[in-house]
Amino acid sequence: SYQRLYVEPDQETHRIYREMDLNFFAEVDGNEVTVEGEASKQMKLRQIVGGAVRTDGQQIAHISKLKASTLEELLEDRRDKKTVVFLSFTHEIEQAELICKKLGLGYLTLRGSTPERERQVFEDRFQQDQSIKVALIQVATGAEGMTLTAADVAVFYSPTFSFIGFSQARDRINRMGQENPMTIIFIIMAGTVDERVVDVLESNRQLTDTYLNQKRNYEMAKNSDTYPAA
Fold first, then answer.
1. Which pLDDT tens digit goes with each residue over 131-163?
2. Residue 215 binned pLDDT confidence (cut-offs 50, 70, 90)
3. φ, ψ for residue 195, nearest 5 deg
4. Is the separation of the CB atoms in 130 and 116 below 8 Å?
5. Phi-psi sector, 58: left (phi>0), alpha (psi -120 to 50), beta
6. For residues 128 and 178, what is the distance between their CA atoms, to the nearest angstrom?
7. Roughly what angle, to the nearest 10 degrees, separates helices 163-170 and 193-226?
8. Closest by Cα among 81, 213, 219, 218 to 151
């Protein structure tokens, strides 16, 4: 199943978001954030709704803890169960690590910079070590081939524009050996790029599911014609 957890932007977040969206520029705590081009702007908008943005001086300027607080509440409610959390930016991972430490939850982190040899250790520990409750994964890593079926919930803190990246990430808990109903949760800031991205991901998922179902029905019909009932 798919769920959306909505977060309402506060006044300051709304101001910064609107300034960036309209002007390709925003000021955060006296620091300038400028972009060139629509793609770069969309990336900054995603950072802003996540609660922090990288400035022109390469500093992390914090805006709000709205989405972080929602993630904290979710993990606290699931402290006895394993959860996989996908994040887009390294500073979001650092924030999530602080949340896990605050809650006293054992966690593992997988970034794009994580060496390949450490990924099998990551998988084995998450699957087998009962003290590890949270897997924090940078969605761009994809974690292809990794089995994380010890969790039945995957949370997308900052949805990715890539349907392929999303589907690869989502399927880490949807693999052979999964024995529980699965839930995919999007944390969404209302009225922002989050909603548009998730709408596109959901549309692609529905198109993919429709195609696979049609193909499955076609194959069943073809086999039925080939091997008629006696």
1. 999 999 998 875 677 899 999 999 999 888 888
2. low
3. -65, -40
4. no
5. left
6. 14
7. 70
8. 81
Q: Are 84 and 146 in contact (CB under 8 A)?
A: no
What is the rounded CA–CA span in Å between residue 147 and residue 49? 30
pLDDT digits (tens, 9 = 90+) for 106-116: 999 998 777 87
Q: Are 184 and 2 a contacting pair, CB within 8 Å?
A: yes
**E strand intervals along the chain:** 2-7, 25-28, 31-34, 52-54, 60-62, 83-87, 106-110, 132-138, 153-156, 183-189
Output b/e per residue, 15-43; b: 16+ Cβ within 10 A.
ebbebbbeebebebeeeebebeeeeebbb
Whether the CB-CB separation of 28 and 22 falls below 8 Å is answered with: no
Contacts for 25 with CB less than 8 Å, ≥ 6 apart: 19, 32, 33, 34, 35
Residue at token pair 């950072």: 47
